[in-house]
Amino acid sequence: FFTIFTLRGHEKMPGALHGIKILEFTQIIAGPFGGMLLADMGADIIKIEPLNGEPWRLHNQIIPLESKAYIALNRGKKSLPLNLNHPEAMGIVKELIKEIDVVIVNARPDVPTKLGTDYETLSNINPKLIYCDNTAFGRSGPDRNRPGYDIVVQAISGLLAADNKLENGVPQQVSATAVADYATGIAIAWSVCAALFARERSGKGQKIDTTLLSTALSMQGSFMEMEDYEKEERLEFLNTLESLRQAETPYSVMLDQQKHLAGSTTGFRIYYTTYQTSNGVIAVGCLSEHLRKKAATVIGIKDPRFEGGYSPNDSHTLEQIEELHETAKEIIKSRSTEEWLFKFDKAGVPAGPVKFVQEMLDDEQVKANDMVVEVQHSAAGKIRMAGPMVKMSETPLQINSASPSLGEHTELILDSLGYTEQDISKLRRNGVIR
Fold it and tell me: Are the C-beta atoms of 416 and 99 separated by less than 8 Å?
């Protein structure tokens, strides 16, 4: 079932993972995204799906059994729908696993063991197997069997509270994208590549554990405790938090306590934010005093913090900063986005327009760097989408195919295993395959 693809009559240069064979038992975002990143590097991937398709196929379908969400996360793969509760389906899996390099699983911890797709079972068949097991919270601890999607992990990990976004006093999810899911997909691809490299040295396979919770914690720089600094303040906050919860205090009060612990963000005000212009919105991002001084000059404001003797806890100075922020808003609103970007660019101040993702397919910067690819989907037709995340000069990443339609490669895969047409027909009649 592994093929050599050609482009415009010429064989493609092989990717870094050319010849690596991966079997996916994945759904939704993290596992599929991690697999797709590996497919972009040249890996051959078979995705095992339920007979009716994995849930993301059915999420806001644009045509039967196809959704934008699924298409965006599963390019370059082959689809093999199997009823894993049927013994003959597991027979197919066990035949495949003999030649497989990597298995990627994302499910509740108890599911692979029940199905027989767990590491212990599959590595007994193929000892060199690399098995990436992605769960929400890990395989130990009180939450190990709790199902968890991105919003749940955002809540438990502190990400949701850190975003400081309230609606009717209740914290709201980081909703622009599933941050824990997508970042975990990158962790999956990264760890699989490392395990493959280690196997080249040792000849041994291994098990990888990735979790949404660990990813979400790793993305938060404030997740630490310094023994000699701030430890007492953190413990004091925890005691206060417990008292507030027992008193059934509104969440907004707890958030104010947490903000106090996190310290003042005054240094970021004015120079690390968004502004309304006369015809749009721009973002300004200055993370050094050198850049902040430049931005102040461009905007035309006099910041007391650059005059010396500034105390971050001085109430009068803080009031001045708040007033200065309002002044900056009014000044920037008086001119167009184009005028401000010209000024900021000329001064070397990081700034950019706030755009909608729909604009980016035709964005000149995106096109100049080949960040968009075009693929032909067997059911949905021509698709333009974000291409590979990285570029490699000697082993280029390339898109071999769009996401597969459900069961598109069933015959191809089973034929490669020696199943006859009669065998395949019987498997369909018995509800083993689609």
Answer: no
